[in-house]
Amino acid sequence: MKKKLYTLTISLACAVMCALTCASETEARLSRDIVRLHIVANSDSEEDQALKLRVRDRLLEATSASVSKEDAAGLLEEYEAIARREIADSGYDYGVRAEYGRFYFPTKDYGGLTYPAGEYDAVRITIGEGEGQNWWCVLFPPLCYVKGSVDSSDAGRALRTMLSPEDYELITSGRSGRLPVRIKFKVVEFINSLKEKK
Question: Which contiguous run of DSSP H or E holds residue 124?
Fold first, then answer.
């Protein structure tokens, strides 16, 4: 009995390590290939959240479907000006800051796709104090759409061309309701959070 328990424990540990390695490698590859648009509201008040969505709509209206990863950092001045104009037109005097860099994001389902936790390149727009809930989408490949919706078939086609078949299957498997992918990414997210606390 002890031998069976030992074998089961070792097998389970090996399976967990394999899953973690696979999810970590996928996160690393995706974080190199994807650029996010990230908008952070001033606060969680209903008015500030509505303002965040209006800023989002103006930014997406001005975003070309042909934006490339190399273009993303060059959008800062334009995005900041658009956000300032929408904030002022809405009757607020909040400051706004646009920046490009690598930022941490938790595991997230978006348009039927599961993106693992990790650091991603992103254009971040911070409104006012930046203490409210945020909104994000995938700027490159261009999967952001006005009104915050995403056509998952377009997203799937774009991602299929840039990802390996294994990575594509891993992040799209959430569509079929399979739970293990999300669990793998959540375990990686938990381990990453422990590393950050050190």
Answer: strand 118-127
